[in-house]
Amino acid sequence: MIRVIIADDHPIVRAGLKQIITEDRGITVAAEAANGAELLAAVRRQDFDVVVLDLSMPGMDGIDALKQLKIERPQLPVIILTVHPESQYALRILKAGASGYLTKSSASDELIRAIGRVHQGGKYITPSLAEKIAFALDTDTGALPHETLSDREYQVFRLIGTGRTVSQIAEDLALSVKTVSTYRSRILEKMRMDNNAELIHYAVQNRLVE
Asked: Is residue 210 part of a domain?
């Protein structure tokens, strides 16, 4: 029996995922978590075979939880299941140690297969993501400006791209306004841009925000 833990801040989503997963008699949902901190606490208490993890959660989000999991349980496979399209996060997430990346719209068709694949030690990626990875590995292809950002900088950049102010971003990420302003300055410098308007235009043009 494959023991799965689901981490998502929406109870309705967790219930839906549990229903999908338990259709396979060889898989059971052994625990649930509403955020990254709850997930880590559960993993420290008991053993699981696969983690199904959302990216956007209050408090400790999926990216920070994934990084900590890879430190504490490096062999535990993690499938990221999110509303964010592959173009926005997938490469970054796989580099951080995830074993699979799925959008929630494809969960009903692919989640059980993904769990089986990563439990056997494999990776689960879609054909379109495989193409993106191949392109990224092309040594002749220079990194795009947003690919030079750290994970936290990228997170702040995407929020700026949605038109949110520094104060709003600080509240969203539970950071100080000063810290967010520092990230913003680094982002502008790394991406060689002058203001938020340029960042927003870039984010929209490259489909990095919904």
From this structure: no
Q: Judge if 40 and 122 occupy the same domain.
A: yes
Are residues 98 and 201 both part of a single domain?
no
pTM: 0.70
pLDDT of the chain, 210 residues: tens digit per residue: 999 999 999 999 999 999 999 889 899 999 999 999 999 999 999 999 999 999 888 878 888 899 899 999 999 999 998 887 766 677 788 888 999 988 888 888 889 999 999 999 999 987 777 776 666 656 445 567 888 888 889 889 999 999 999 999 999 888 899 999 999 999 999 888 889 999 999 888 888 887
Cα separation of 175 and 155, whole Å?
Answer: 12
The Cα angle at residue 6 between residues 53 and 1, in degrees rounded to 5: 120
Total domains present in the chain: 2
The C-alpha angle with vertex 195 and arms to 209 and 160, in degrees rounded to 5, equals: 30
Last residue of a domain, one of 81, 107, 136: 136
- Residue 179 belongs to a domain with what CATH number? 1.10.10.10
